[in-house]
Amino acid sequence: MTKIDTRAGWAIAAALGALVPVGAAAAGEAVSESDRFFLDEAESACRNGEFAAFLWPFANSRAVRERYTAPNVRSGAAGDARAVPAARYLAAADFPVVMIDYSYVTAASARAFEAPGGNPRQLVYVQVDFGTSGTDQRVDWVPGRFEPGEGDGPGTLIEKTGPGGYLTFRPAAGCWQLAEDIRNPAGVR
User: Fold this and answer.
1) Are 182 and 89 in contact (CB under 8 A)?
2) Cα–Cα distance measured from residue 170 to residue 149, given in angstroms and rounded to the nearest whole number
3) How far is CA 138 from the centre of its chain?
4) CB 138 within 8 A of CB 168
5) Which of 60, 78, 124, 151 has the highest CB neighbour count under 10 A?
């Protein structure tokens, strides 16, 4: 290979490396049955172009987040967010929402609920709104109090109880990757 060919080879390898999931280095590790289920659900949502169906396994499985997180994630408070490497973002284990039954709740409240002595009253339900901006998918979320409605989900939002934030997913390799996790400042509702 000539020097020019070598540079081109490294450029191609770097470009392909950007598509390798963060958890790929740990590919030899066993994947739990639950994570395998969520990975299959995410792959199906990707194939079908169904972003709302993709968010559920992404929110509920670290393995899915490892596979579908961009190499760098803009993270932090609105107006003060910084790009951080995916490994650092994932190590913080601070993805903001998780789905329990048919409702999104804050991840912090889900952890409290799942701890010994946890109580369902500790769950903080979240309004989730899906939108698009060009080819990006955006999820706006805000915790609140809800009036029970018909069907699945928490019902109708009647009061915001916290600041919330938004998540941006960008198209990548036939699916989406988390690119931004922006939290609203505490005083914003």
Assistant:
1) no
2) 32
3) 11
4) yes
5) 60
Closest CA relative to residue 68, chosen from 128, 14, 137: 137
Distance, in Å, from the CA atom of 189 to the CA atom of 185, rounded to the nearest integer, reads 9
Give the pLDDT score at 29: 66
In eight-state DSSP terms, residue 81 is: -
Spell out the domain ranges in the chain. 71-183
Per-residue confidence (pLDDT) for residue 188, from 0 to 100: 56
Q: In a 10 Å sphere around its CB, with 0-12 CB exposed, 13-18 middle and 19+ buried, how is residue 136 labelled?
A: middle
| Greatest distance between any 2 Cα atoms in the chain | 68
Q: What is the pLDDT of residue 168?
A: 98
pLDDT in tens, 136-168: 999 999 999 999 877 677 889 999 999 999 999
Average pLDDT for residues 81-108, to the nearest whole number? 95
Cβ(3)–Cβ(29) below 8 Å:
no
CB 57 within 8 A of CB 38: yes
Strand partners, 97: 106
- pLDDT more than 90, % of the chain: 73
Side chain identity, residue 172: A
- DSSP 3-state of 29: coil
- ∠ CA 34-127-76, rounded to 5°: 80
